[in-house]
UniProtKB/TrEMBL annotation:
GO terms for molecular function: ATP binding. Keywords: ATP-binding, Nucleotide-binding, Transport. Transmembrane segments: none annotated. It comes from the Bacteria. This is ABC transporter ATP-binding protein.
Amino acid sequence: MGLRRSRRRRESAQAAYEGAGRAAYDDTGRTAYDDTGRTAYEGTAAVELRGVRREYGRGAATVHALRGIDLSLPRGSFTAVMGPSGSGKSTFLQCAAGLDVPTAGSVRLGGTEITGMNENALTELRRSRLGFVFQAFNLLPSLTVEQNVLLPMRLAGGGSARQGRDRAADLLARVGLEGKGRRRPAELSGGQQQRVAIARALVTRPDVVFADEPTGALDTTTAAEVLGLLRSAVDTLGATIVMVTHDPAAAASADQVLFLADGLIADRLPRSSAATVAARMTALTAPAYAGAAA
Ligand SMILES: Nc1ncnc2c1ncn2[C@@H]1O[C@H](COP(=O)(O)OP(=O)(O)OP(=O)(O)O)[C@@H](O)[C@H]1O
Ligand SMILES: [Mg+2]
């Protein structure tokens, strides 16, 4: 009973979120207007999910990891995704980034429908049009910093050697690692390695950068610096970032925070302080526990 009530509340929050989404986007996501009728966002959405469901297993043992996600994220936006353990954050990120295939629904990235794409086409799209930043940095230890930054460009077959060197130098300067291109990752601190990973994620000017707990392995000060870099990639380079995080301080850097619960978007906040984000997380989990106990 209590559980059903809390499910209903989440579904109505999802509907309210959808309504808010429609205010900013028409059905195609191509043109959007704010309340004053001015054009708010030009071009197609960077990320668009429609009715995305992901189920694991079959029959009575089926796990509904995503129960129907509808979402449209404009280019040049920074979105944080939060939620309790098991709420579907990683599944959401994997489906949105073409690393996992939804059971139902569709995903569009930079206007391209990826649903039904074969693995080769998906790999190509991920290399050329998506960037990734992980908690564990995932740099290749045998390559120099510059070679690590340029790896996605090389894999995608883009640009001359000269263009590559210029691009790497520009990005390394932006992330505060000027002159460190010839070092190996092991010669850098954790924070510096994550800066290299951010430069690498931006090198192909991707449609979207997906970040999974990018500050999870960093101390508070270094985490704040890395978040500042992500923020400035959005503000000065027009990057689009979708970041999963458990940290309210990290989510406070984003333009909006989406809260997942039980495979649905249960709530959302516009840019807010860490204290507001933390309070909303507490509110999100508390009624479900109370409901389950009733
Ligand atoms: N490969 C899988 N097989 C079966 N169930 C899975 C699989 N991956 C995820 N799940 C289930 O799907 C649900 C959502 O998992 P997911 O990993 O997306 O949660 P999460 O929000 O990322 O959690 P955390 O904060 O702990 O990382 C959970 O109930 C999980 O047990
Ligand atoms: Mg996870």
